[in-house]
Specification:
This protein has strands at residues 32-37, 43-48, 50-55, 60-65, 75-81, 92-95, 105-112, 117-118, 123-129. With 131 residues, it is an all-beta fold.
């Protein structure tokens, strides 16, 4: 088996090219992912294909994609960390069905089911897979 390693691929005329696409892997690779600070000033910690996070109030966020998804049938995996004292509720991070999910934005909320409250979190993260 051979391995090719390169920092930059060039076209025959010397101009740079876009990253190569590997169709067999496209559906197995995340279309977008993000880790962000959800307390105080909301800020992206690290991301791929996420342009910004909109803060909609306590525990309410909208993840805005840099490049649109092919459709709104994408799959989302989420998680969150709460960094507070005396906190023992589990957290649920879910799509916010009261808001419209689009190909360019995903509304989510972070919910504490034991106290029935939306809450801001120290760190929230999600991954998006789809066509």
């Amino acid at each position: 088996m051979s391995t090719i390693k390169a920092n930059t691929l060039l076209a025959a005329d010397g101009s740079t090219t876009t990253q190569p696409s590997i169709p067999a892997l496209d559906k197995r690779m995340a279309k977008a992912w993000v880790s962000f600070n959800g307390q105080g000033t909301v800020a992206i910690r690290s991301s791929y294909n996420v342009s910004s996070i909109t803060d909609g109030g306590a525990g309410i966020y909208t993840v805005n994609f840099t490049n649109a998804m092919a459709n709104t049938d994408y799959s989302v995996s989420t998680g969150a960390f709460y960094n507070g004292t005396g906190f023992d509720d589990p957290l649920i991070v879910a799509q916010d069905d009261s808001q419209t999910t689009t190909t360019t934005a995903l509304p989510i909320y972070v919910y504490r089911p034991m106290s029935s409250a939306l809450t801001d979190v120290y760190k929230c993260f999600l991954q998006v897979f789809g066509d």
